[in-house]
């Protein structure tokens, strides 16, 4: 059996076309959606991430503001900037690129963002809203994974989903979204003694670990859907995920590649959340 590829690039393009149409409609009503992206310091990976986010905004007609600060910016100065953006009616989403320099408390910064503009969905209030089934913003990567699963036409009701990883930004919100879709959810982590015992029972596996070959073909039930969030480097420096793609594609029904699976969806869902924020206004 050879699994069908879940193409995150194609799905992203389709969703971005929808986002562009919604942005155009808001702009025609004088309410162009706006995203503020804040970068503190010179981290090279972060520079690429913010550049990609700003470019993606431009491509779909979302107004974006990129604020770059030196690494010695004080925590108070950053908090003051966030307060100003919270009160700026042209801005519907605020994103502070992580990691921040060590002297700035990231929790304090995330909590300073108004919940109505927390398009990353990282704040305690956003997480609580999601936990209790309210209308908070969904964390972008898990939200993208849900769209990828949805694109296979699978109804998650009654299915067993196993999430590997329990980070606040990926694993935990992923498990909550699967639960909301009526899956039966198991969360595995580094203290899970025998991962395969759980993954072999799963109709859907989402791997969000950060370690290649965490999931191999012998750990996957025939016909399962496998979503690979991981971003790692192989021995040749090539980007790869957490799952053994070549082995698992012979067992699974659907699988996301790395690159070209979850990665492109994360920025797309950030754009989607920004549009949703502007529409809520
Ligand atoms: P993280 O905060 O480091 O969390 C990793 C999780 O994996 C932890 O919960 C950890 O368990 C668990 N884990 C570690 N070793 C394990 C093992 N041997 N068996 C089972 N579980 C294990 O990482 P993250 O931020 O969630 O990101 C995970 C991966 O996704 C990374 O590769 C990251 O780069 C990637 N990522 C990709 C995107 C994208 O857009 N494509 C977005 C975000 C993240 P403990 O809690 O017990 O330590």
Structure notes:
It is built from 10 helices and 11 strands. Strand 5 (160-164), helix 7 and strand 6 form a beta-alpha-beta unit. The protein is globular. It has a 6-stranded parallel β-sheet. The chain has 281 residues and is an alpha/beta fold. It starts with a strand and ends with a helix. The chain folds into 2 domains: 30-115, Rossmann fold (3-Layer(aba) Sandwich), CATH 3.40.50.10860; 139-263, 3-Layer(aba) Sandwich (Rossmann fold). Helix 1 packs parallel to helix 10, helix 6 crosses helix 7 (171-180) and helix 6 crosses helix 10. Residues 141, 164-167, 169-171, 188-192, 195, 208-211, 214, 229-232, 262-263, 266 line the site of NADP nicotinamide-adenine-dinucleotide phosphate.
Brief sketch in words of this structure:
Helices cover 41% and strands 16% of the residues.
Report strand order across the widest sheet: 1-11-8-7-5-6
CATH H-level superfamily title of the largest domain = NAD(P)-binding Rossmann-like Domain
Low-confidence stretches: none
The assigned structural class equals alpha/beta
The percentage of residues in β strands lies in 15-25%
User: In angstroms, what separates the terminal alpha carbons?
Assistant: 48 Å
Write down the oligomeric state.
Answer: single chain
CATH topology of the largest domain: Rossmann fold
Mean pLDDT: 97
Instruction: Write down the CATH class of the largest domain.
Output: Alpha Beta
Biggest sheet details: 6 strands, parallel
């Amino acid at each position: 059996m050879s699994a069908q590829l879940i193409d995150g690039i194609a799905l992203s393009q389709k969703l971005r076309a929808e986002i562009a149409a919604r942005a155009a409609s808001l702009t025609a009503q004088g309410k162009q959606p706006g995203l503020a992206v804040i970068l503190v310091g010179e981290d090279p990976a972060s520079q690429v991430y913010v550049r990609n986010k700003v470019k993606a905004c431009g491509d779909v007609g979302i107004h974006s503001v990129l604020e770059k600060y030196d690494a010695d910016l004080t925590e108070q100065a950053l908090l003051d900037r966030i307060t100003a953006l919270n009160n700026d009616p042209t801005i519907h989403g605020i994103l502070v690129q992580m990691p921040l320099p060590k002297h700035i408390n990231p929790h304090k910064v995330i909590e300073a963002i108004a919940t109505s503009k927390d398009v990353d969905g990282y704040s305690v209030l956003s997480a609580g809203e999601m936990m209790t089934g309210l209308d908070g913003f969904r964390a972008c990567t898990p939200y993208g994974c849900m769209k990828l699963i949805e694109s296979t036409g699978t109804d998650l009701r009654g299915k067993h989903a196993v999430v590997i990883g329990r980070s606040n930004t990926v694993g935990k919100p992923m498990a909550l979204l699967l639960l909301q879709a009526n899956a039966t959810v198991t969360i595995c982590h580094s203290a899970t003694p025998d991962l395969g015992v759980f993954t072999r029972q799963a109709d859907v596996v989402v791997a969000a670990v950060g370690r290649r070959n965490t999931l191999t073909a012998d750990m996957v039930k025939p016909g399962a859907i496998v979503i690979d969030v991981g971003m790692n480097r192989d021995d040749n420096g090539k980007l790869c995920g957490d799952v053994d793609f070549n082995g698992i594609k012979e067992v699974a029904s659907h699988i996301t590649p790395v690159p070209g699976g979850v990665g492109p969806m994360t920025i797309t869902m950030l754009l989607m959340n920004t549009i949703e924020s502007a529409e809520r206004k």
